[in-house]
Amino acid sequence: IPESPLGSTNATIPVIGFGTASWPLGGSETMKQSIVQAIELGYRHFDTAAVYQSEHCLGEAIAQALHLGLIKSRKDLFITSKLWCSDAHANRVLPAVQNTLRRLGLDYLDLYLIHWPVSLKSAGYDVTYSKEDLVAMDFKSVWAAMEECQRLGLSRNIGVSNFSCKKLEQLLLTSKIPPAVNQVEMSPLWQQAKLREFCHRNAIHITAYSPLGARGTVWGTNQVLDCAVLKEIAEAKGKTVAQVCLRWTYEQGVSLLVKSFNKERMKENIGIFDWKLSHEDCQKIEQIPQERACSGREFISEDGPFTSFEELWDGEI
Ligand code: A2P
């Protein structure tokens, strides 16, 4: 799996990462064995978050892979985790990253991200929080605490997730270390042209999540894998629709996260480096009507801080 430069840093990021956001599989033995299998197949980048409940099992899988000799050292891997909204307060960031490292059994992360541009008053990682607990995030002080995590060596790189151009602009106004990454939804059905252009200009690397449309989740959709344009291209190329999605995403210069708990599909999803899409294929894909799968509706509340999708995504909807 090739690597891509990470923002304006000297670091690189493997262009395909393995996702571990899964309900109800988060933290299960099945997930742990899938991660070990993924390492065996050549995946080196793993994406977790405090709220996924998968940090502990990712840590166990890494220990097992080291024990089995599938990798030589921790340094062979690229590990991303995320600060949950309940920890997105200046004084809770350091304890949060320390707890994440403890659950992973690691002494540093490669990348630590602010999960969403919003804070929660309540503590803990229960996703069924009360909407009254949603509060505006103080970007300046939370980001300063993220910078401190990097200075202390707890994470090699820091970044954000689910940030619009406008929110990135706001963060850049006061940041000393610019975010290396913005991890956002991106697929042929949600191409993010405007955000990609903004991030490119500001040397912020994009990681695409849900490149297959997050089929099988509560927010996800089958529309990506069922898309007629993609099916036609896949058939003509002798590839699967999933491979066409992943190849298109990779060709846009971003890294991507994909997850499958099925060994054949895990192999299929990394089989995208010895062929490419034609100019005509890409033109057809660019014309696919756009629709976001992950709307973030759980962050919209009558009492704010975001009272509409418009406010959450700043019109990038
Ligand atoms: P499975 O674990 O049964 O393979 P996303 O990465 O967009 O969130 O999508 C993940 C979903 O897509 C999972 O439900 C996964 O199911 C499925 N999936 C992953 N790879 C493929 C593939 N190559 N073909 C079809 N479905 C896939």
UniProtKB/TrEMBL annotation:
Specify the domain of life of the species encoding this protein: Eukaryota
Recorded protein name is Uncharacterized protein
Provide the species name: Vaccinium darrowii
